[in-house]
Specification:
174 residues, alpha+beta, Alpha-Beta Plaits
């Protein structure tokens, strides 16, 4: 490959990395054509970008980035597929789903999620259960709304009780 071609590919990879907040490195080398196509379809449905990359070109693209991906460098061995997403747990859930079917591949090599590096396939369960930023915001909003809902509910129920008591008292006097 010519040097100009390599520079172009490095620039494309670097631009692609800027678009996504979560980077997963996976081993997909042993998948046959049918399983690879199925994986690509599932990635497309889950809004995950799947790219097969050369390790040296990916490393150079990561070095050009403003984000510190240096924790992922040890995982850049063998064949590497890049899974990119803006939802932190989506690629992990997808990999876990495929591992259940195939028992081996795709295998998680490393992940960069929310500025944290996770190394090894043993982190897959943790990453799959990791809540996304939007899910955490929804949990906080629900927690903040809970006391207000309780107060409103208490006021409504006490208002009904008070109304019932007053009506009973007014009916007794007649």
């Amino acid at each position: 490959m010519r040097k100009e071609d390599k520079l172009t590919i490095i620039e494309e990879i670097a631009n692609t990395l800027k678009e996504y907040s979560c980077v997963y490195l996976a081993e997909t080398n042993g998948l046959d054509a049918e399983k690879t196509s199925a994986l690509r379809r599932e990635c497309f449905k889950s809004d995950i970008k799947l790219v097969a990359v050369k390790n040296t070109l990916l490393k150079k693209a990561m070095e050009q980035s403003d984000v510190d991906y240096s924790g992922l460098y040890p995982a850049l061995k063998g064949s590497t597929s890049l899974m990119l997403s803006n939802t932190g747990n989506a690629p992990a859930k997808l990999i876990k789903k495929f591992v259940k079917k195939d028992d081996v591949l795709p295998a998680l090599k490393a992940a960069f999620v929310e500025e944290t590096v996770y190394m090894g396939a043993d982190q897959l369960d943790f990453l799959a259960n990791l809540k996304s930023k939007n899910e955490l915001i929804a949990d906080v909003v629900a927690l903040l709304q809970s006391p207000a809902k309780n107060v409103i509910s208490a006021l409504q129920s006490s208002g009904n009780k008070l109304h019932g008591i007053l009506e009973t008292l007014s009916n007794k006097e007649e």
